[in-house]
Hints:
Blueprint: H1 4-14, H2 20-32, H3 35-42, E1 49-55, E2 60-66, E3 71-76, E4 81-87, E5 89-97, E6 102-111, E7 115-118, E8 123-127, E9 134-140, E10 152-154, E11 161-163, H4 166-180
Antiparallel strand pairs: 1-2, 2-9, 3-8, 4-7, 4-9, 5-6, 5-8, 10-11
Helix pairs in contact: 1-2
The structure holds fe (ii) ion.
Amino acid sequence: xxxxxxxxxxxxxxxxxxxxxxxxxxxxxxxxxxxxxxxxxxxxxxxxxxxxxxxxxxxxxxxxxxxxxxxxxxxxxxxxxxxxxxxxxxxxxxxxxxxxxxxxxxxxxxxxxxxxxxxxxxxxxxxxxxxxxxxxxxxxxxxxxxxxxxxxxxxxxxxxxxxxxxxxxxxxxxxxxxxxxxx
Length: 183
Ligand SMILES: [Fe+2]
């Protein structure tokens, strides 16, 4: 059985450990190993988007629903994160900084039940490569919406760095959701 209050409590306890992200990884792996229990606790998403399950200065837990075929621009987090796939597929492209911009440096495709830890300085972009929604639990080692240092995103066409724009990100989810629904 999955309970969000218990999950958050366990994550908060894990923060005290020497390698908090590894301990959180185990918790997320356990949570996504039983997707039916997760769906029972959290419900089925009605739209693509980001649902905040917990927000605090040292921990954020988000329920991400990617629209079919959706892409999200390169961005960094400036805090560690753990991603666990509930259903669908999430293709991550990892980028590294160059003198003037960024270049693709690697990739990792996550399917249902897969879990990965992203380091503090990772830059990634995300694609949902399938024609249905993908759902993932993302846990961050800080306040995702108010990071201690300003985060960056990169224009997906020109790869020019600019300040992270949360409103633009929410708009991208809304537009992708409408496109997938044929609106
Ligand atoms: Fe991200």
